Amino acid sequence: MEPTTTKPVAITFQHVQKAFGDQVVIPDLNLTVEQGELFVLVGTSGSGKTTTLKMINRLDPLTKGTILVNGQDSSQMPVRDLRWQMGYVLQQIALFPTMTVAQNIAVIPEMKGTAKKVINQTIDELLTEVGLAPADYRNRLPRELSGGEQQRIGILRAIAANPEIVLMDEPFSALDPLSRQQLQDLVLRLHARYHNTIVFVTHDMNEALKLGNRIGVMRQGQLVQVGTPTELAQHPANAFVRDFFGASRAKNVYDIYVGRVGLSQGYLPKPAVAAGRIQTLAAQATLRTAFKAFRTHDYLAITEDQQVRGYLDRQRVVAYLSEHEAD
Amino acid sequence: MQTLLQTLADRRGDLLTALWQHLGISLTALVLAMVIAIPLAIWAVRRPKWAEGLLQLTSVLQTIPSLALLGLLIPLVGIGTVPAVIALVIYALLPIFQNTYLGIAEIDPSIEEAADAFAMSRMRKLFKVELPIALPQIIAGIRTALVLIIGTATLAALIGAGGLGTFIMLGIDRNDTPLLLIGAISSALLAILLSALVRWFQTAKPRQALVMFGVIVALLGGGGAYSVYANRVETVTIAGKLGSEPDILINMYKELIEAQDKHVKVTLKPNFGKTTFLYSALKNDQIDIYPEFTGSVLETLVKGQNPKRMTAKQTYQLAQKRLRQQADMRLLKPMRYNNTYALAVTAQFQREHHLKTISDLNRVEGLLKPGMTLEFIDRNDGLKGLKKAYGLDVTAKSMEPALRYEAISKGRINLVDAYATDSELRQYNLKLLKDDQHFFPTYQGAPLMKASFAGQHPQIVRALNKLAGQISETDMQEMNYEVNVQKRSAAKVARAYLVKHHLLTTGAE
Question: Taking every annotated instance into account, which residue ranges of this chain make up the domain ABC transmembrane type-1 (chain B) (predicted)?
């Protein structure tokens, strides 16, 4: 999905500088996040990505420069107004341990004075949405949930008051691979449904490629490259981005997702074969699924947001795997 | 066991009163400590430097020995319930402050960050997030404080605040194990019970907890209101020092006064403490009368040189004069017996070494193993002066009054100080040594009160003066024996004596 200049802007960084004492960690950051975009900030630890995120809701104050939120200077807004229009999801999950699932989700709507009845309805809807039966889960305490379940509630807590912007700080890095996959899918689904602006921080390029409409790669406090996954894959700005991208392959080839093969190898045009020989797969599907599909089909049609991005055949996949091996 | 149950049955009323006082003092102190320590800890959480200082301060306060703390408080706030509660609050501060502070300070920073990111107000964050998370630790601190308070509150008896400590003090003083056990066990049970109650509060639903809290407040408040109601008639408060003899005497005072004037109600505070406690209580109007000895007045309560070898009459007149001049107090006419210090040995030791007088001790100086009360050892009219007057060179172990008789009967010591009327002299077959140098001053008992009180209550003075010149040393030894050994109540013994000697003239039979 290409960002278009006609889209309204949600967040703008203008010459933002951040220093801790004498140490300047972010010298001069300029960035624009569109409304309704899922923007991923990716970088190694210490690259300044989390600091960048926390400056948006003023958990970390800026040293210099301006951040505009919906065109307004965020430092001039009452901090409560600013934060109430932004959901926040933490790496440590940090559900309030003495509150039930329902109470955790209700935290922000309650402060905003939403009617109890409406809140209760929202809680049930949201729980159902993420596949947790309300009757079963409403009154559980956080410690009675698995890590993946806890972070689902963490996300629901952030979006319960329907914020325009959701900030996510490495939300899945502490989870097991299976939960991580499920929650990534959940984020995509919720984003497709609610169209809010999401700024998502991760150190995992795979995750960035899977989730991001656009990705900002950070290194030592600077944005090295901002672009769509395709741009990053095909035209890396420098060796750092290329290496970062290359090193990001999944540990297990079966877990590589097919969209990635297309990104690095390029897609084929629509083959002139009978429709029965083509299997349609979402870009988020893994090679495991792709291998199964190749047992009975010759081509894969890869879709993103219900739109076909291109086609892959067996040679493309094998070529990707062999290049991979050469890295 | 039999005697324990018997004592329990006899003392049921006293025990309930003591439990009530104990509970009142303890819970008041606990609530005050919570009201001080919890908000202070919450305040200190955002000020780590202050928190460090406050932790140090509360730790230091806790290391002050409780007896010393009580002693320090007397000149500031007098005696009775107030200093006891203050001391207990001081002890309870540390566990409550420390647990509240750490409970909040150690909350996972990511949870604080979440609360901030959702723009919770300070108060909302405190009540919805921080306090609920820290609650188990805060409750644990409160329980520690509670157990500490209930244990330490037994010392409140020393400064006239009553409570279960009365039983323990009496038990030690009279060498009465059942009494001691009743006091100690009740206090332990109370601690366990209340600790369980606090734990229940932690798990209880808010509404139940609120109802229970209301019930407790109502009970305590009701108790307080009742005692105000009960005190509405003019009340004269008479206190006595530790031991059976003052207890018997104040019961006599009560009988005599109430027989004389039906409109006066006498409240007794037996075993109220030691000499200086009682004297300052009298000065501060916390009590109206207590029996004092002429010798003690001259030795510890008033200033001035004491001439040697005074007669009993001279002693009384000098004590009376100095009290009037220096403190505006009045010491009524004394009773007959002279409860002076004396030295005693076992009958066997006396026979073996042919001891008759204190001077005879010089012959057996190397064999002496004295065990004496701290008060006696330390007084100029006690061992200090005695050693000079008789040229004795001995060092005494200090022992609680009741314990030294136990020790001499088991042969661990062989020389004790005694009062001439102690029932134990008879009980353990001990022999007094004659004070051939006339070293010990005269100690005659008489009611002590403020001159103003005596002026306003001539009928009370008249009633008490009936005892002047009454009660011989053997009478007193016998009465002490009846109370200490035969376990008759001091009230009954006192009354029997008054009836026998026709001192209750108006029909109070």
Answer: 19-198
